[in-house]
Amino acid sequence: MEVSSLSKTLILLGLLLATHTNLALVQGYQGGGGGTRVGFYKSTCPGVESIVQSAVESAVQANPTIAPGLLRMFFHDCFINGCDASILINGPSTEKSAGPNAFLRGFEVIDAAKSKLEKACPGVVSCSDILALAARDSVVLTGGHSWKVPLGRRDGLVSRGSDTANLPAFNDSISVQIKKFADKGLDIQDLVTLVGGHTIGTAACAVFSYRLYNFNNTNRPDPDINPSFLPQLRALCPNGGNALRRVALDTGSVNSFGGSFYANLKYGRGVIESDAKLWSDPTTQRFVQRFLGYRGRHGLIFDVEFGRAMVKMGNVEVKNGKRGEIRRVCTAIN
Question: Molecular function (GO) terms listed (predicted)?
């Protein structure tokens, strides 16, 4: 059957649209949109990525908990005054010493990478770029897909522990989570995608045990917890037990990066309250369904979307040009 001229036109338009969409995705990965770009150190420090990767790989092989620690560190850094390595600065009233960052780990990995980079290309690579690369490498080393990291950030000059009050919290409602992400230019899909980083790592019993025994002063557990999952959590975190004991955020996937986190949410196996609400609230549930490939929903591929969202988050309030500095050591302002 001969194709009509109208059909040919529609087919051509469809091909042009697909090409434009693919080009936009590639450009989105190549340039961060915040003054950063892939290949920023191509002529000034060409070995930067291999040096950071080597430091992260050695650390994760020795201690797998370093991987989720570095990923969380980048997230926490970007949410406070932008991705500027302010979380790395030592001091009694800095972000690093504040309560929400008390359980972060991997600071020594950033310091090790910086030390090597200062020998290879002194005064060139920022601590904030090292952290962005280390977060990506942590995902790859635990089985996730890689992505190109736009670089060119400069390091911040301010670090206040009081600013950590703006971090997303373990008991935030969905509306509060949405607002905190929106304040950083991140939408609901970004929220659901980035929280999927909880597919690796653990939480202390202190962060969620209230859900197991006396949720909202009801003397009952959180109804979002699957009754068949409750005994497992109670065995790990008995009432009045060790509040510092660590429990996998994604049951069965503590050291393996993948989309199983969303399946656990669907079946009422979310460990912390803010994660569990991603399924119980319809505003975010529709995105969880897309990651799970629900029929009738346009599917999302977690590995692809996570890289995209990390690039977007990595350009939150970036300092470049004459703003900020390139620290000589990551733990102190020059």
Answer: heme binding; lactoperoxidase activity; metal ion binding; peroxidase activity
Mean pLDDT over 299-315 rounds to 94
What are the pLDDT digits (tens) for 124-168? Answer: 999 999 999 999 999 999 999 999 999 999 999 999 999 999 999
Please indicate if the annotation marks 108 as binding a ligand: no
Distance of CA 266 to the CA centre of its chain: 21
Burial of 157 (0-12, 13-18, 19+ CB in 10 A): middle
Q: Which of 20, 76, 145, 298 is catalytic?
A: 76
Judge whether residue 209 has pLDDT over 70: yes
Percent of the chain's residues with pLDDT above 90 = 84
Residue 172 in marked binding region = no
What pLDDT sits at residue 296? 52
Q: Which token pair is 12?
A: 């051509």
State how far the Cα of 187 lies from the Cα of 193, in Å rounded to an integer. 10
Which range, of 6-15, 99-108, 182-191, 262-271, averages the lowest pLDDT? 6-15
Is 145 in the active site? no
The annotation status of 198 as a binding-site residue, yes or no, is: yes
Q: Is the Cα dihedral 167, 62, 121, 151 positive or negative?
A: negative
Give the domains, in start order, of the chain with CATH numbers. Answer: 48-167 (1.10.520.10), 174-312 (1.10.420.10)
d(C-alpha 307, C-alpha 319), whole Å: 21
Q: How far apart are CA 243 and CA 245, in angstroms?
A: 6
CA distance 213 to 239: 7
d(CA 14, CA 326): 46
Answer whether residue 3 shows pLDDT above 60. Answer: no
CB 249 within 8 A of CB 272: yes
